[in-house]
Input
Amino acid sequence: MQKIIEIKNVTYNYKDYTDNGTEIATDRGVNNIDLDVYEGEFLALVGHNGSGKSTLAKLFNGLIKPQSGSVRVYGLNPEIDEQLYKIRSKVGMVFQNPDNQMVASIVEDDVAFGPENLGIETKELRNRVDNALKSVNMYEYADKTPTRLSGGQKQRIAIAGALAIEPLVLVLDEATSMLDPIGRSEVMETVLKLNKEGITVIAITHFMDEAVKADRVVVLNEGKIALEGAPKEVFSQGRLLHQMGLDVPRSVSLSTQLSERGFNVEPFTTDIKLLGDKLCQLLSKI
Output
């Protein structure tokens, strides 16, 4: 697969201030991170609060710039203003709170906001808005008011707004954290569909049952990469994950417990449907 994002020895730390205004450096953020992202993959970034996930997400499209090290997105350097604009047309971002991302009182106007600011002509703008709404199964809501939609629907509209700029990469920064289970399911179905259609997805999440659907999982801890690999490889390290304050997906936990108790179940199963089918087979023999 083609390497499209390269993070090389990157550090970005936030600063605190004393009561008298003196600046204090902290180690919050990311420290000496190396990470590559490949075209067409679904990459999940997980970690406890303050582990550096959102900092890393903002580096992907130049919302922040590294204090040391280098970031390259399709070979472009976000520290060069002319190239930063091109990067942001290639990398779309969706954030945590859908209400904070709404800028218009009509759904289609909201989706049009991004490409309109890029100077896209009216006919092309119409096509982009329609296609983006169809991609997230929200076309029938084009003339509705966003405030009347559910949380999951609002987040899908936010994704449509990102898609309307026709990005090659979609970054989701805790995009499902404020949604109920139904809303999370709606958004994840949309994300998986878009990934199958060729969009590279980077999902920052603390829901392990979402991360297990990725091609690759990266675990951040204290601003550094602690684990990296396929979901089964990462989530088989349950003890280490628990030490970092993280859980394993329900399917991994259940399958491992059943295996340890002598049941004919493969441990560390990441596919909940596969595990369900196996359990049905076992129950049918009782």
User: Anything to note?
Assistant: The first strand starts at residue 3 and ends at 17. The chain has a mean pLDDT of 88. DSSP finds eleven helices and nine strands in the chain. Residues 181-196 form the longest helix (16 residues).
